[in-house]
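Take the subject:
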Amino acid sequence: GAEICKEAPRKTVDPKRLSLGWMSRLDADKINSLLNFLDNLQRAKLDYPVDVHIIGDGNCRNKIDISQYAPKIRFIFTSYLYGEARDRYIRENIDLMVVMGISALDVAQLEIPVVIPMLHPTVFPENKFVYLFDTKDYSLGWDIDDFEKMDIPSYKITEVIDHLRNQGRGEELGARCAAYAKEHFDGGKSCRMLLKALDECSLTMEACTANPVLG
């Protein structure tokens, strides 16, 4: 499986500011999740301003009304970053990543705390974020309507920030996210699970071809 990055420790982020990151396409299927995250930050009663680093781009970027969040939130748009350049940027600039899907695993391997937001096709008022290590059933993203069925813990964004700043748990949370990603999403382990499932499966090719959808 992938090894956890062991580069030099990240530089200390300015204690007078909070550095949060978002990474995804800025398209219609995800933009409302980003706006919900920003709205919750805007409403939060914080003692310091916030930097939000947005890694990605898309045709809905103009839906982010920067003036609505100023001066409390300062935006840093990087467009898309890949590979070592992306990892280095995150390690050097960001305390916490809000991200979903495979990207959550990429970030977790850097030992950065990762929380997963909710998705919804329209604007929605919800303040629930889930640490990567609290997810289950290999789900790394969910619609707001499905969340209650999942029975997993969630935290308000102010609670997550409190864990990082006031409780000083950033290093611990990052390590837990990294360990969880390695344990549950290791490539070799996933292949072994697939082979085991195939070996125990009683489905035959004849049954597949007889199915009107598959055949």
